[in-house]
Amino acid sequence: MDASNKHEDAGKTLEAQAKAFFDSAPPLHNSHKISQDLNHFIQHNSSSLENGEARRIVCVTSGGTTAPLEQRCVRYVDNFSSGHRGATSTEYFLKAGYAVIFLHRRGSFQPFCRSLPDDPLLECFEPTNDLNIQVREAYSEAVKRAYMNHHTAVEGCLLLKLPFSTIFEYLQMLQMIAISMRCVGPRAMFYLAAAVSDYYVPWKDMVEHKIQSGSHLLDVKLVQVPKMLSVLRKDWAPQAFCISFKLETDSSILLNKANAALDKYNMHAVVANELLTRKERVVVVTSAEKITVLRDNSESANDVEDPLIKLLSERHTAYIEDSSR
Amino acid sequence: MDASNKHEDAGKTLEAQAKAFFDSAPPLHNSHKISQDLNHFIQHNSSSLENGEARRIVCVTSGGTTAPLEQRCVRYVDNFSSGHRGATSTEYFLKAGYAVIFLHRRGSFQPFCRSLPDDPLLECFEPTNDLNIQVREAYSEAVKRAYMNHHTAVEGCLLLKLPFSTIFEYLQMLQMIAISMRCVGPRAMFYLAAAVSDYYVPWKDMVEHKIQSGSHLLDVKLVQVPKMLSVLRKDWAPQAFCISFKLETDSSILLNKANAALDKYNMHAVVANELLTRKERVVVVTSAEKITVLRDNSESANDVEDPLIKLLSERHTAYIEDSSR
Q1: Alpha carbons B276 and A245: distance in angstroms, whole number
Q2: How far is A320 from chain B (nearest CA, A)?
Q3: Domain count within chain A
Q4: Which residues of B touch A123 (CB under 8 A)?
Q5: Does the interface ipTM go beyond 0.90?
Q6: Structural domain boundaries, residue A279
């Protein structure tokens, strides 16, 4: 698992680094099925009308990617992310009239399921007198609403859910989605809330079997993942409206990092958020302004994603109008 | 995150290494509540009778532990483990008359829920004509059985579920459980199916904030986790019947590794299993014999854990009888 190609990579252009990443990645399972589902979803939604206009499509990425340390993966470096931001935002994008491709980490939070307990099956039911089970009164409305909203979105072809685990799966699927969405032009949005690995072990450098634990010290050398945000903006989906996220635990460097990301990746906006206050407050950083978005805390059920998605949807409208001039 | 104390640690006795690990670990949340629940569970079960004898208690560990790379944890090294082995084994231990302490990774497989789809809430229901929802016919028996079995075990004080995520939480809880179970003597069993991190970054060596991703290469140095199986056997629960697991992807080294673990940690048995065939076949390695246990594949619903737990339960009976002589 030594990163023997480190010096080689550092001098390469970004395009060459991206190509090397994809060439060496393990092939994506089910890529034919994913491609079919994607094309059907995009065709259906780009030809259907919402208030007399073609529907907008957003790709929401959600949850963390893993970087395997072994080919037959036992150990991996993971990024903490519950997927709460992506799942919640998906609900508000649907409410705002978008069709949503929800590219999410397997097992992370799902849209419409946030108000349910961790283990809904075991906690939402109770036994009845006739040896049967029923949904508990306290959860009955929440379970019904979760099921109905989810069912309506999926059956109505407004929500397409695609799961990933590794950084290899995530980037291969993001590329497929971006290229499939080119036909949507500026009506496409990327809302990149996933916590994507910064470092990985290239597949060909990886040991095949489980790392043996004989020695007192384990030294893991990882190389930087090519900065695919730039490639997405420049090559994969140059017309799409692109939002990325910057999460830090240290507030003193957050806005500078967000500004740097805006410039470096040429994003339309970067949503800056801090780990401890991320459900209360985010700052939307664009080249022209910094807008603080706060959760309306008059009711505990309110989400910061409600005003955030309203703001981004308005900016997207302006962007579409600008593009057509 | 440099492991500056590596040379220091290598020369220490195991007891000193274990002490250093616990002294430097972040304090366990809810330790008072966990301790209360544990004591109540153990008292209740050690005084209740099963066929005229005090009930046996097994601690089943399940799922993988994480080793955080940052104190405010964004990145961590994780061990792949669905928790399927531990969840399934728990069902068979309950069937065999044991009370089970299920020490499991948060979000891993739960006992009695294996036959349900991944996302039971969204997949098990269907809308009714009167704008309500009901359990789908195809899942109705499975949902009812899952709920009822789980409910009966928890309400009957036969199943205590304790969740962990990090290696720090896991080892602190395992120590609490082992010490609380001393009073049960040889009627206690440890069935250690969790995939426990071999390496970690000591808490005090860890950076507080998120690692910055400026440089091309990330070099993560981890030190070996003290071999707590030895400490469990020798100090925490010297009278308990102890089973550990050895999972490898390389079959050529599996049995040697299992034998080595048996000797090194003084286990009563080691269950050897290979990643690709782990649901079909395991080998129980004791100092006297190697017993291959196969899934009865006459029915697809059969589990290899069924004959495995029967065998271990018999061996445990013999161990209890030997201990009382």
Answers
A1: 38
A2: 34
A3: 1
A4: none
A5: no
A6: 6-323
